[in-house]
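Our consortium's second objective concerns turning raw sequence data into structural hypotheses that experimental partners can test. To show how far this objective has progressed, the report includes one record in full. It was chosen at random from the queue rather than selected for favorable results. The single chain below, 329 residues long, was entered without modification.
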Amino acid sequence: MDTATHFVMGFGLAGLSFVDPVVASNPELAVAVMVGTVAGSQAPDLDTVLRIKKNNASYIRNHRGITHSIPFLFIWTALITAVISLLFRDVPILHVALWTGVAVCVHVFTDVFNTYGTQAMRPFTEKWISWNIIHIFDPVLFTTHVIAILCWFFGIFDPAPTFIVLYSFLALYYVWRTLVHYSKTKQVRKMDPSSAPEDKYYVIPTIHLNRWHVVKAHKDGSYEIGKLDGHLLVWSKHAVSSDHPAVEISKSHPDIQAFLYFTSFAVAEVEELSFGYFVRWGDVRYRHRKQYPFVACMVMDRNYEPISTYVGWLSEDKMEKKLSLGSHT
C-alpha cells in the first residue's frame, strides 16, 4: 500500500488495541501502543533511504525485499519495542510488542495484495509475491480508516467497537476483492477470442473498482496489453522486446539487472541516435497514457559502451533530462 494508507492503518490498529482491556484501562500504555502501531506500520518501508543514500537502482532492487521478509517481522517489532521501552518505562511492554508486531505483519500482508508485491517469504525464496488484488491506493481502505479515526478522535464512538466493525468490514472487503479478481481473470480468458491454452492472463487492479488493466503473456515472451472496463475487454498494444544487440548488451549493466531482478514483465525498445543507442526497458504491468512509466533506460555509444542510465518512475520529459539526451545530439 502507499505511505498514507499505511499511516492511517497504524492509527486504526491503535484504535483496535482497545479490545485489549489492559490497553483500554491504561492511558499511558494506549499512547505507547499508538506509537508502536504507527511506527510498525511504516517500518518495513524504511528501505526508501536507499533512494537517498545510494541510487534508484538499489532502491528498485531492494524495496519491499528483505525489510518485508519473515525475519524482519521480528526485527522491526523488537527494535521499535526497545525504543518505546526507553520512552515509556512504566508500561507493560509485552502489550506494546504485541500490537507493534500486529502492525508490522499487517503492513507486509496488505502489500502482497498489490501489483508491486514483496519478497515476504524470504529467506525461503526471493520470489516476488504480488497478488494483483488491491490497488496500491485503495479509496475504500483509506476512506473507511479516516472516517473511523475521526469518529474515535472526536468521541463520537468508542474505539473498540468502532474498529472491530471497521476491520470486520475490511476483512470481508478483501475476501470480496479476491473473489472478484479470480472471477475477472477467468472472465477475460473466456472473452478473448484469440486465447490459447498456453497464454497466461494477469488482471491488475486500478483505483476504480470496476476497471482492470489486463496483460496476456504469450509463450514466446511477448505480451498483449489491454483493459477490462466492466464487461468490455479492449486490447490496445502488442508488446515484444527488440532483438537489437544493444538490448542483450544492456542486460549486463547493474542498473538494468536491478530492474530485471524485480520484474519478469519487461520488454525492451531500441532507438537509434546519431551517436549511439537508447535502450528503454518497460514493465508492461504499468501502462499509463500509452506509456510505460516504470522503466530502466540506458544510453550507449556506437560501441555499446554505457553513457548514462536511469531506473524508476519517469515521464518522457524528465527521462530526457535525467539521461541528458539533448547534450549528445
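The partners drew two points from this record. The chain is about 45% helix and 20% strand. The first strand starts at residue 200 and ends at 205. Both points have been shared with the crystallography group to help prioritize constructs.
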